[in-house]
Design a protein that fits this description.
The complex is a heterodimer. Chain A has 19 helices and 12 strands. Chain A is of the alpha+beta class. Chain A folds into 2 domains: 35-56 and 100-271 and 280-301 and 470-542 and 592-602, Serine Threonine Protein Phosphatase 5, Tetratricopeptide repeat (Alpha Horseshoe); 305-463 and 551-586, no CATH class. In chain A, the strands form 5 sheets. A 4-stranded mixed β-sheet of chain A has the order 8-7-11-12, with no helix packed on it. In chain A, a hairpin with a 4-residue loop joins strand 7 and strand 8. Chain A starts with a helix and ends in a 10-residue tail after the last helix. The model of chain B has no long low-confidence stretch (mean pLDDT 89). Chain B is flat and about 90 Å long. By secondary structure, chain B is mostly beta strands. Chain B has one helix spanning 2-19, and strands spanning 31-39, 42-43, 52-56, 66-69, 75-80, 83-88, 103-107, 110-116, 121-131, 134-143, 150-158, 170-175, 186-191, 201-210, 217-218, 222-225. In chain B, the strands form 4 sheets. In chain B, strands 11, 12, 14, 15 and 16 form a 5-stranded antiparallel β-sheet that branches. In chain B, strands 1, 2, 5 and 8 form a 4-stranded mixed β-sheet that branches. Chain B has a 4-stranded antiparallel β-sheet with strand order 4-3-6-7, with no helix packed on it. The longest helix of chain B is centred in the N-terminal third of the chain and has 18 residues, at 2-19. Chain B has 2 domains: 31-116, Immunoglobulin-like (Sandwich), CATH 2.60.40; 121-225, Immunoglobulin-like. Chain B contains 1 helix and 16 strands. The chains are: A alpha+beta, B mainly beta.
């Protein structure tokens, strides 16, 4: 018995000591993924790519910096806090971006695919590295439009621990070099990208779209910077593109736009016969949308979602008990939408001699025959959202027979009733001093989700963010053609976009840059274009000059009232007051030093070869 | 036992309250740098919160500028530690000719500094008058540097002593194209807006804009009685 137990013991000892020795030391780690595993598995590489797409910088999008839509002249801020209504001047580092973290990750990925991706096919390797190079070009474009020339780092920098980092310190490239790099990268990769039918990953047409935009920026900086009394530049041209390059850049931009438009791959969205709804859907409809070229997509069921709708939905259609109404479009923007007969979009609220109001029988009266894009972008009085009327009425105007004038009656209770049984103040305001209700008299429609429950904090929204769409490419092509003197071609492009907005065919017979600038403003509102467009035309310091008496630098509002004048023909009609938005404080003030953002001192300390931008 | 715990607790609380924050507090900066931005001993009028001078100090790990904002009357002040600083007139920042020569500042306790600059233009013989709620001014503009040209001259009125393009109730301008001869006196006038006509006084100030320079040079704000 004892013998048996002894041998059993021995057996156990031998079993334990020798058993799994080999496996034990050579097991694959469960919590670390090795380079060989990542770069040989297309699924893992796609996972990484998804992460890089997600990190692409944007100044204002649905997720990053969305509140800054209310910091320019498209809109004001009507939620709590008044920071964006009271920006005394834009700080010099406002648009600063030095995104070498992402650049390094991309450079590393490009090198590692080449080193480790042995079991990938040659096509896969070239496709993935082209896609990574597209992302890198995108990031460099985001940097050059904010900072001017930046160091072009295209391979990983390795420190040798010998105490001297100078070989890693790269000076800034010239501004035009960065734009040229973007162009040559895009030319090189566009035929290798694949992803033909994707609108969330880069393909040939996405590369053309980026090229069309980037070359247009370079061209207009080359042209308009040099038309300033004192062009902004540094001696080494880290900032400032020579005027002679403008022609070349405009041609490159136009060619890229033409290739995209002529490919027939994309069409302007014209599915809905209601033109206003159609324009809203052109940007927000995620299926069967032939217009969207590249978007950042979201999906509630995978918990990839955002609160943009929660924060910006109109007050009386909100489904949560907090927030709503943050970004509220300005009257300035609303009036920039022309009337369909081609006349300027100034709303007619007073008679021609300014002696009396114009009396409208409906709240939407002044907006009749406006550009359909207004409806698709802005919720204005008398319109609905999700089939619920958005009640926008500031109060009533009661006629006082003794003084022969109207007296305003407004209530701070939303949806309140006046003595005569009619509506006093609408359930969606506007309100002069309350928060979470519009202060400008308008609400945002573009990018606000129609899906039920998408404005609750529990569910939120999976509205996508459009990075490129065909509407912009038409306008890019038109601008480049106009600058190159090809006016008839320019007219063809811009009229295509206007036709979709309800203007009829060939609505413009002649074209000026000013007209085209306005067209960009109304077509691309709330798509992260306005501030960059004004910068590249070098107009930002004139339009936002910080002067309280400049109507472009302040945010204006429109307050509708119901007339109470029993026995008079105007009784029950609507009149409209234009006013400076009551919660708006400091006029927008853009200084020369804002054209190129400041480079943080810590960056200069780490790399003394980096020169500062002008004015700071 | 209870008593003991309580005493202990009180003792601990006392130690905490009185002992705590001695070590981690640094003395506040006690030295003071004050001064003016001058041309020929005259302070230069500027936009409030607009123009900045830079102060740098070498020898410490954190090397970053100390911005010094210049008040609208051309004065500035900063609370600092004793030490040797370098003051730089930031290029393209003020309404004067670029001069990047460093000014060395040896600060020991208190120092008053005059920062010399050369403006492109300046005002002379400024007179204001008021009649029927209309503020009028007459003045001459002197050109001090020929490298840049005149862009416009503006008159601002405001309700407080801070008057500039960002803080005003009314303004009027003459563009350079309407100024034929700078040696002759010029006139500018502006009506007080109706909603401000009940006031006892307003402040008025002139500004000259040089093309290619963002900031303007101002005259002194003058209080003008309306009644």
């Amino acid at each position: 018995m004892q013998k048996i137990s002894k041998s059993l013991f021995m057996f156990l000892v031998i079993f334990l000591m020798s058993g799994c020795a080999e496996d034990w030391l050579d097991r694959k780690p469960q919590n670390i993924i090795l380079e060989e595993q990542v770069w040989n598995d297309p699924k893992l590489i796609k996972g990484l790519l998804a992460n890089y797409y997600d990190r692409l910088p944007a100044h204002t999008s649905l997720t990053s910096g969305w509140a800054e839509f209310a910091a320019y002249d498209e809109a004001m801020w009507s939620n709590n806090d008044d920071g964006r209504n009271n920006i005394v001047s834009y700080p010099f580092n406002r648009w600063s971006l030095w995104e070498y973290g992402l650049i390094r990750d991309i450079n590393l990925a490009i090198e590692n695919i080449a080193t480790f991706g042995t079991s990938l096919s040659a096509v896969q390797v070239s496709q993935f590295s082209s896609e990574l190079r597209f992302l890198r070009a995108f990031v460099y474009f985001e940097m050059v439009k904010r900072m001017g020339g930046v160091p072009l780092v295209t391979k990983q920098l390795i420190y040798d621990f010998k105490g001297d980092p100078t070989n890693l310190q790269q000076p800034r490239n010239r501004e035009e070099e960065v734009y040229d790099f973007i162009a040559s990268e895009l030319d090189d990769i566009q035929d290798k990208l694949g992803n033909e039918d994707s609108n969330t990953r880069a393909n040939k047409y996405v590369a053309l779209a980026l090229k069309s935009r980037a070359m247009l920026y370079a061209a207009s900086i080359a042209k308009y910077n040099n038309l300033l009394a004192e062009p902004i530049m540094t001696p080494g041209r880290e900032v400032g593109i020579p005027a002679a390059r403008a022609q070349d850049y405009y041609e490159k931009s136009l060619l890229a736009s033409q290739q995209l438009l002529n490919s027939g791959k994309y069409r302007l969205y014209k599915t809905n016969p209601n033109l206003g709804e159609n324009f809203y859907e052109a940007i927000t409809k995620k299926t069967a949308n032939p217009e969207v070229i590249l978007a950042q997509d979201f999906l509630v069921s995978k918990d990839k979602r955002h609160g943009f709708t929660y924060d910006n939905i109109a007050r009386n259609v909100r489904e949560d008990n907090l927030s709503s109404s943050s970004i509220t479009p300005s009257l300035n923007l609303v009036e920039d939408y022309e009337f369909l007969d081609g006349s300027p979009g100034i709303l007619k609220t007073r008679t021609a001699d300014n002696s009396d109001y114009i009396y409208y029988s409906s709240l939407s009266g002044p907006f009749e025959n406006k550009d359909a894009r207004l409806y698709g972008t802005v919720i204005y009085p008398g319109t609905s959202f999700r089939a619920t009327p958005v009640e926008i009425q500031a109060g009533v105007k009661v006629w006082d027979e003794t003084s022969k004038s109207f007296k305003n009656v407004e209530s701070n209770v939303l949806g309140s009733t006046y003595d005569d049984g009619g509506l006093l103040t609408g359930a969606s305001g506007p309100q002069r001093s309350q928060t979470e209700v519009t202060n400008s008299g308008f609400y945002l429609r573009k990018y606000v989700d129609q899906t039920a429950m998408s404005s609750t904090r529990g569910i939120r929204s999976d509205m996508w963010w459009v990075r490129f769409r065909l509407g912009e490419i038409y306008l890019n092509a038109s601008e480049a053609a106009l600058e190159l003197g090809k006016t008839s071609e320019a007219l063809e492009y811009v009229n295509a976009v206007r036709e979709r907005a309800g203007f009829g065919a060939n609505s413009l017979k002649s074209l000026t840059l000013g007209r085209l600038q306005n067209e960009r403003r109304v077509e691309l509102a709330f798509e992260d274009h306005r501030v960059w467009d004004l910068m590249r035309w070098r107009k930002a310091h004139e339009i936002w000059n910080g002067d309280a008496s400049n109507p472009d630098a302040v945010i204006n509002a429109l307050y509708p009232y119901r007339v109470v004048r029993p026995g008079h023909p105007t009784h029950g009609k609507y009149v409209f007051d234009k006013l400076r938005a009551p919660r708006f404080r400091a006029p927008r003030f853009f200084q020369m030093g804002n054209y190129y953002s400041s480079i943080a001192q810590s960056i200069i300390d780490n790399n003394p070869k980096v020169v500062r931008n002008p004015y700071h | 036992m209870n008593q003991l715990l309580r005493n202990l607790f009180i003792a601990l609380a006392l130690i905490f309250v009185f002992g705590a924050c001695e070590k981690d507090n640094k003395p506040a900066p006690s030295a003071k740098l004050t001064g003016r931005v001058v041309y020929q001993d005259q302070a230069i009028g500027l936009r409030s919160n607009g123009v900045q001078l830079e102060l740098w100090q070498h020898g410490y790990q954190l090397f970053t500028k100390i911005p010094i904002y210049v008040n609208q009357d051309g004065t500035f002040s900063a609370s600092l530690f004793d030490g040797d600083y370098q003051l730089v007139r930031l290029k393209g920042n003020g309404p004067w000719v670029d001069n990047t020569d460093t000014i060395h500042v040896a600060l020991r306790g208190r120092l008053e500094l005059e920062v010399p600059v050369k403006p492109y233009h300046r005002f002379a013989n400024v007179n204001f008058s008021q009649a029927n709620k209309k503020v009028s001014s007459s003045f001459t503009v002197e050109k001090l540097d020929n490298s840049k040209s005149l862009e416009r001259i503006s008159l601002y009125i405001g309700t407080t002593v801070i008057v500039d393009p960002n803080n005003n109730i009314a303004a009027a301008s003459i563009p350079a194209s309407e100024v034929a001869d700078l040696t002759k006196p010029l006139q500018l006038s502006v009506n007080v807006p109706t909603s401000f006509q009940g006031r006892d006084y307003v402040f008025a100030r002139l500004a000259v804009k040089t093309s290619g320079v963002a900031e303007m040079l101002f005259s002194e704000p003058i209080k003008i009685m309306l009644n």
